[in-house]
Design a protein that fits this description.
globular, eleven-stranded antiparallel β-sheet
Length: about 270
């Protein structure tokens, strides 16, 4: 009985979707996409493909694939242009080539898309039609978060509405009970001459920001952390002494573990 009601609701929803999609197709120039075929496939899916809870996600991805990437909101942006002459460095986070990631853009999640993060300009770039040389610069205001190389970057402006001195995309490194740690990855640029040719050289830096009591505070040094938590000065100093090697070999993880240690002792 419940399955029958569920299928009836699904058919109703798909009928509405198909009707709106027909109206959308009428306003499009002639394309290879066959609107009637898409609608027919969607109706078939309503009969055979909704017995599991994850089918909604599968159909959404399938629907995007059938219609074509050209009508997705995530493809609405400016053409990305790199004006730099590169040699030994680049302006991106980790990789200058497009790699698979996920983006929550304009209130919709897009998975397995080719992206790269320009940390010099603080812009996310998406490949257009899987082309490694042609990209689209996504609008920061519409990008809530993205995942790249198992790292989650959030738009601080969208996530936290209270007044703050920081802005843009930050790696969400640690989310705690009372405090959280965010990392701003950025690069500086300078021009250098190599063998009579002018190149752009980039150098990467990091800015650690602690969120505590709805306030962001820089915690890049031991002194700044001690100032933020004077009640734990002895414990923090001892932690630094015991973990000197991890701090040198993996500073990002060291700082996250330190913040977690502080969080557990507050």
């Amino acid at each position: 009985m419940k399955k029958g009601i569920a299928r009836s609701r699904i058919k109703t929803i798909l009928f509405i979707v198909s009707f709106k999609f027909k109206l959308y197709c009428k306003n499009l120039p002639l394309k290879t996409t066959n609107c009637s075929s898409v609608i027919f496939i969607l109706l078939l899916l309503s009969i055979n493909s909704f017995s599991q809870t994850n089918k909604k996600k599968e159909v959404s991805n399938y629907f995007d694939k059938i219609i074509g990437e050209e009508i997705l909101n995530i493809n609405n942006g400016k053409i990305h242009i790199d004006p730099y002459n590169l040699k030994n460095s680049h302006n991106y986070y980790s990789n200058k080539n497009f790699i698979k990631g996920s983006v929550f853009y304009d209130s919709q999640l897009y998975e397995n898309v080719l992206i790269k993060y320009d940390i010099y300009k603080d812009q996310l770039v998406k490949s257009f039609e899987n082309n490694n040389s042609f990209g689209i610069t996504l609008t920061n205001e519409k990008t809530d978060y993205f995942l790249i190389e198992d790292k989650r970057f959030v738009n601080i402006d969208n996530k936290y509405k209270f007044p703050k001195v920081i802005t843009g995309f930050f790696e969400e490194k640690y989310l705690g009970k009372k405090i959280s740690l965010y990392i701003k990855h950025f690069k500086t640029a300078k021009e250098t001459i190599i063998e009579s040719s002018l190149y752009n050289e980039f150098k990467e830096y990091s800015d650690y920001q602690l969120l505590y009591n709805s306030t962001f505070t820089a915690v890049n040094t031991q002194k700044e952390i001690l100032t933020a938590f004077p009640q734990l000065k002895k414990e923090i100093r001892d932690y630094y002494k015991k973990n000197k090697i991890p701090e040198d070999t993996n500073p990002y993880q060291f700082k996250a573990d330190l913040i977690q240690f502080i969080d557990n002792n507050l």
